[in-house]
Design goal:
With about 210 residues, this protein is mainly beta. The chain is built from no helices and 16 strands.
Amino acid sequence: MLALGATAAVMPLIGFLPFAHAATRRDLHFRALRRRSAIGEHSVVFRMDGDHLKVDTHIDIVVRFLFITVFRLKHDAQEIWQSGRLVTVTSTTERDGTRLQVSGNAVEDGFRIVGEGGPFLAAADLLTSNSLWNSQIVREVSLIDVQYGGEVGMIARRLSDEQVNTPQGAVRARRYQMITPHYAGSVYYDGDQRWVKALIELKGETIEYALAT
């Protein structure tokens, strides 16, 4: 979530797995770290139901300073995809004491999503703000916002490759800088286009996502 609204063209990219390969995706479980100390988790679980891909996202992060909670984010969402298109989404978010609910479904002329600001008709072929698990997100300039509703802009650009430690050993990963209205930072994908790391900037803090399994 790797939950900042400008839009811009992104650099052309090659070598991405097509969305059809989602059936073979492995679940993702990250530890959220602040200054090397654990502050929460972020997981993405995939299930196939016929020709539908169900994606469950769970985020639970708490940042404390001197025993005072300075940031809290809890987010649970389920997305259902079919043939690369988002079919439905439901989510609940608790952010610093504010509770948000979002729901949406595909309609003939786009994707209708309802959040705090009311209904909004987004383009039919967009990824969501939770779609860091899909490496094609770095090609996007707009996303369906599953925390607040509506549509948000995004900027992404490729940085240098880096070595990333994973539970299966060190891998070489492509690093991309991303900016949306709600978060900024970097996301890393290995040679199989698997999301293996993230650095998220929130309220002046850098939170690292480190693969746990």
